[in-house]
Write a structure and sequence with these properties.
about 350 residues; alpha/beta; 434 Repressor (Amino-terminal Domain); Rossmann fold; 3 domains; six-stranded parallel β-sheet; 13 helices; 12 strands; about 15% strand; elongated
Length: about 350
């Protein structure tokens, strides 16, 4: 086989009749492989004379001086949400003077997950930053299994073992709802983010906590689930108005969804803030350009990006660095919508 046809994990997997993840596990000595599969992979490696990139470079520990920023979301979300561009700006700031290259990796389907697995197994990057973390996402476990330094923007659950940096989502949501109650609002609804994300669950819990603190019952009829997109925010607002026609305030778990909620309120002839007060979350550029301008919880997104980059560089430089769990404060920015 010529140099241009050097065997890859994909060709080894095809020869062995297994998936690329199984080949990667065998290469990295993972115990999570059956004896039968291990034997098939080892036979295919021998037949094809496959040599992982990291071995070909001489040492498994050799550096590539590059890291991957992995975003397991559709391009449409990447384009429409200021959150992602702010994280990328922050990461770039955190990498200044490190001579580290940044690779942006979108994982939108199984094929792209397989490509990431192969890249990780062959150590084409020194570490990974993972943004937009879902509870059942296989990527964090995969990276941990391969022993690749990994830092998350956000976390999967309160027991997250990997290093991560996040905003005070719970406290920010509580402050937003206290603000609405303090303005005399009686029926405060909420539009949530995806509840398979800890950020969505925390902001919902903050809404509940603030209502209970004020001796109000956080009734489920006041909760509409959405997915951080503008259209889902509009749909959720429509559903809330149908269920609770006399609601007079809504805490929305992102500015993008709040923009959709404002569109629906306008379409139904509800004045903001006179009839319904609205508070978003992020304090992105969107908040300053809605009509009326949006009260929002400011989270330090660029600081999250620069912090995860710095922590990852530390973990790459010294694998014994203790894992860090960092919470950054939020601030309520009051504008015309409340």
């Amino acid at each position: 086989m010529g140099a241009s046809q050097r065997p890859t994990i994909k060709t080894v997997a095809a020869r062995a009749g297994v998936g690329r993840t199984t080949v990667s596990r065998v290469i990295n000595g993972s115990p999570l492989v059956s004896d039968r599969a291990r034997a098939a992979v080892e036979a295919a490696i021998a037949e094809l004379n496959y040599v992982p990139n990291s071995v070909a470079r001489g040492l498994v520990t050799s550096r590539t001086n590059s890291i991957a920023l992995v975003i397991p979301e559709a391009e449409s979300r990447l384009d429409s949400e200021p959150y992602f561009s702010a994280v990328i700006r922050g990461v770039s700031t955190g990498l200044v003077d490190t001579k580290t290259q940044l690779q942006l990796v979108l994982v939108r389907d199984k094929g792209e997950l397989d490509q990431l697995t192969e890249s990780v197994a062959e150590r084409r990057v020194d570490g990974v930053l993972l943004v937009s973390v879902h509870r059942d996402d296989p990527i964090p476990g995969l990276l941990e299994e391969f022993g690749l330094p990994t830092v998350l923007a956000g976390r999967r659950s309160p027991s997250e073992p990997l290093s991560h940096v996040r905003s005070d989502n719970l406290g920010g949501a509580e402050e937003a709802v206290r603000h609405l109650l303090g303005r005399g609002r009686r029926k405060v609804a909420t539009i949530t983010g995806p509840l398979d994300m800890e950020v969505g669950r925390s902001r919902l819990q903050g809404w509940r906590n603030a209502l209970r603190e004020a001796c109000r019952e956080p009734e489920e009829v006041l909760v509409a689930r959405a997915d951080f997109t503008e259209k889902s925010g509009q749909r959720a607002m429509r559903e809330l108005l149908r269920r609770v026609p006399d609601l007079d305030a809504v805490f929305v778990a992102s500015d993008v969804m709040a923009a959709g909620a404002l569109v629906e309120l306008r379409a139904q002839g509800r004045r903001v803030p006179e009839d319904v007060a609205v508070v978003g979350f992020d304090d992105s550029i969107i908040a300053r350009h809605t009509t009326p301008s949006l009260t929002s919880v400011r989270q330090p997104v660029e600081e999250i990006g620069s912090a995860i980059a710095r922590i990852l560089i530390q973990e790459i430089s010294d694998p014994k660095t203790p894992r860090r769990h960092v919470v950054l404060p939020t601030t309520l920015v009051v504008r015309d919508s409340s």
